[in-house]
Amino acid sequence: MEETDATESQSAVSCNELVVAYGATTAVDRLSFAADRGQIVALLGPNGAGKTSTIEAIEGYRQIRSGTVRVLGLDPEGQHADLVPRIGVMLQQDGVYPLLGPAQVLRLFASYYPGAEDPDALLDLVGLTAVRATPWRRLSGGERRRLSLALALVGRPEVAFLDEPTSGVDPEGRVLIRAIVDDLRQRGLCVVLSTHELAEAERLADQVVIVDGGRKLAEGSPAELRARTAEGSIRFSTDADLDLDALAVALGNGTIVERDGTGSYRLRPPQGTATSAVVAVLARWLADRDLSLSELRTGHSLEEAYLSITAGHRQPVDQLPQTTEPGEASGAVTTRNGRSGGRRRRRRAVERDGR
Amino acid sequence: MKPLLAQLRVELTLLAINGETVLLTVGIPVIFLLFFSSVHVLPTGTRHPVDFLVPGIMALAVMATAMTALSIGTGFERGYGVLKRLGSTPLGRPRLLAAKIVSVVVVELVQAGILVGVGYGLGWRPGALAGTGVRVAAAVAVMVLGTVAFGGIGLTLAGTLEPLVNLAVANGLFVVLLLLGGMLVPLSKLPSWLAELSKVLPAAALAGSLHGSLGNGASVTAQDWTVLVVWAVAGPLAAAATFRWE
Fold this sequence. Notes:
The structure holds two protein chains of two kinds.
Chain A: H1 2-10, E1 13-22, E2 25-35, E3 40-44, H2 51-59, E4 66-71, H3 80-83, E5 87-90, H4 102-112, H5 119-125, H6 141-153, E6 159-163, H7 171-186, E7 190-195, H8 198-204, E8 207-212, E9 215-220, H9 222-226, E10 234-237, H10 244-251, E11 256-261, E12 264-268, H11 275-288, E13 295-301, H12 302-310, E14 330-335, H13 342-354
Parallel strand pairs in A: 3-7, 3-8, 5-6, 6-7
Antiparallel strand pairs in A: 1-2, 1-4, 8-9, 10-12, 10-13, 11-12, 13-14
Chain B: H1 2-17, H2 19-38, H3 49-79, H4 82-86, H5 93-121, H6 132-160, H7 163-180, H8 192-199, H9 202-214, H10 222-242
Helix pairs in contact in B: 1-5, 2-3, 2-5, 3-5, 3-6, 3-7, 3-9, 6-7, 6-9, 6-10, 9-10
């Protein structure tokens, strides 16, 4: 027990065997994880996995059925008043007065905290200066999320909880939000965020906790999770129908060539082969035949890891995480043509499940 | 203090920039007062209708602000998740509630000022000068009790119903209590069974008390005091027991 206490006092956020239930439905099932200062932890999982229930239990909104939760050493429910000045919260529903503009709302929230950030500087940081007086109800989805992020940060929190911070945000806004969140780590904040997007978890998080059905399926850094998939494959797309045998001969070395879908292929070089060498041969081979290379991905992706980790667990096809930025989810991206590979991957996931 | 003042400013801003609220709290009472003082269609039972209308419409104004406007505003804040979001700030429930109460009182003071001014313009003269201080004190006391009672009812609705249902119920209740509350039509003109029922409702008790304290040669009855006190205790208790923040 002493050891547990020591761990709890060190971690900014700790969650031990957390159970959250609504009536007979168990939303969170004995979930444990910890997050330190200067660390970004992502809860990754499909919709309905229990991410929001977990975060809201840690924020003190949900009654926990069993287990312990500590934030900065405090009980979020029992010591709520002591805790709230030290945390920043971004809920899934923004929860902003619809008739007020960003500047008014930020000034209001700034008044709640002693030593709050300067509202104008914060508006500038999240890029809302131009719409500072626009009523919230007329803001775009992305602008609303950016305002919510600013509201979470205005009290200079030690811990920030961001529930799906980029949902409904355009690509430009995502880049901005991720840059701001990334900067929080440098400032020593502990950030716990939830997302159903692999790209987001991979881009931002130091630690990823993969959750589904209220349970933790895996935990680790993106690199550790990627390393769980044994094979390092090369996937590429081209417009033409390739002669697989001819390509295999050209690559030599026992590299396996497979068709992965229409116009998309997968190479599996034997262990120890330098990927760059295989790619060089592939590029030369395609160039000699005047063929395009429209998408190329190498190495382990978190997505592959995610799929292999969740395979065997509850995994209906329509509940896979969205892969809105498929190229960005891979470990090493060279080129991509912007065509979404989501459907193809889903099909593969089904195959995997079927095995 | 700083959070409370900032919150109060926002509550007042929201009441002022919301057209429906302004119509409900200022527009309707003033229009009723002007119209029914000039067009003598109501069986007010007084020589000048304005003598009956000013106290009755004061009661209506209290009900509009403390019950209907408070309920609709709070209900939508709950629906939009504003109350939930405020729950994870250091503002805290006591200060949020205090800001809402003070904002209601401020609006009521504005309403009372306007209604008394318009009433005077229309020839209203409150009761005899003798005992004016006592009468005004009684009027203020019953308005405070009425505010607490209607505020409790409004928050009970806002804290339990969906925002749109709450909108309908708060407005519907406003109309029903306006008709049954002795605000425009004296209770004596209602069928007796309806009048008996009305007497135990807070609207008639408030209007009756204001007629008693501001009218000519009348006073607040013990029954009105009792009904108001009971609602002023029951309303907030019901709100506290049933209010759901999400």
